[in-house]
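<instruction>
Derive C-alpha cells from the sequence
<data>
Labelled lines for chain and fold
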Amino acid sequence: MMMDEKSTYDFMAQEELQSIRNQFPILQQEVNEKPLCYLDSAASAQKPLTVLNCTHDFESHDYSNIHRGMHTLSMRATAKYEEVRGKVAGFLGATSESEIVFTSGTTAAINLIAQTWGRTQVRAGDEILVSELEHHSNIVPWQLLAEEVGARVIMIPMDDDGVLDLEAYTGLLGPKTKLVAVNHVANAIGTINPVKEMASQAHEHGSVIVVDGAQSAPHMKIDVVDLDCDFFAFSAHKMYGPTGTGALFGKAALLKDMPPWQGGGDMIDEVSFAGTTYNDPPMRFEAGTPNITAVIGMGAAVDWMQGIGIKKIATHENALLGYATKLISEIPGVRVIGTAKNKAGVLSFWSDDAHPQDIGTILDQYGVAVRAGHHCAQPVMKHFAIPATARASFAVYNTPADVEQFIIALKKSLELFA
C-alpha cells in the first residue's frame, strides 16, 4: 500500500537523493539497532560534509580574529567572514550587504530589534500585533518592551486549521499599531503565513513588520524586497549550518537610525570619556568578537543549498509532508494539528492514546527522532486545548523510506498504549 501511495508524490530522483544523503556522515549510523530516521530538522538540521569540512579547514588554516589585523591570517579570516555577508544578502534578495547584520540567531535578532528600534520608536499607548502562531522568541521580547514603555501586545488570532484570521488582522490594524510581528512559517505546525499581504497592510497604517524567518529560510525561496518586510531574521542551524549564528536583514533606512544595543569593539567610530560615536550599520550592531567559524560555516551552508536549488528542496519536502500526512491520517486516534492548505515540512500530531513525550521516547527505540513538547509555542497548544504535540519535520535528506519507518514505528508505539 505504501508503495502505491509513493508514486503519486513528486519526490527527488532516488539517485540524487542518495547522493545528498551520502554527504551527511551522521545519517550513516544506526540508533538502537535501527537505521537512523532523523525527523527533527525544524529544531536543528544536520550538516553536510561541505559545511563540516569548511569549518575544519578554516580553523586549521585561516583562523584568526577579524578586522583591524594587518597580518595574513587576520586578513584572510576577515575576507572569508565578510564574503558571507554578501552570500546572505544574495540568499535573502537584499539590495545591499550593509542590510545584513550577523547575530547569534533568530532570537538574538528579534531581541536586537526590540531593544534598538523598539525602545526608540514604541511609546506608551502604542500597539504591537503578534500572531497567535509565534515561537516564544517572537512574543516575549515584545512583551518585555511593552512592559517597559507602556505599550500593548495584541494577538492576531488563528482558526482551527492553524491559519491566521486576516479579517481580524485587518480590523486590529489602526493608528496605534506600531509594529507587526509574524513568523513566515510556524515552527509548531508548519503554516506558511501570507507575509507579503500582511506587510502591505501594515505599511498602509505606517507600521513596521518583523518576520521570523527561522523556518522559511531552509525550505523556500526568500526575497525580502518582494515581501517588503522591514526586518527578517533566521538561524543557520536550521539550514544545514552551525549553531550559534544567524542573520538579521533590516531595511537600510531603519538600520541607519537605530542606536546600538551592545557596546564593545567594532561597533564604535571613536571612543573618549567625553563621549562615543558609533559605526555605521551593520557594524554598529556587531559588538565584540563574533562566532567567526560558525559564520564561515553559514556561508558554506548557503552555497550548498543553492547548489541543490531551493525550489527542488521545497518540492521534495512538500512531497514528504504530503506522503506522511496521508499515511498518518489513516491511523485511528491520531489527529494532525495544523491543517492549513499552505504548509512547509512540519507534521505535528496528537494521539488520544499516548502523551507526545511517551511517543517520542518509544519512537527513538525504532531509530526515529522526532520532537515532543510545546515547541516554544505554548499559545498554539492552548488554542488546540492540548499540552503538547509530537512533531516530525522534514529536510532535503529525508526519504520516502524515512516516512514509512516513522509510520510503522508510530503504529507499533501506539499499540503499546491502546
User: Anything to note?
Assistant: Residues 74 and 157 are 50 Å apart (CA to CA). The longest strand covers residues 177-183. DSSP finds 15 helices and 17 strands in the chain.
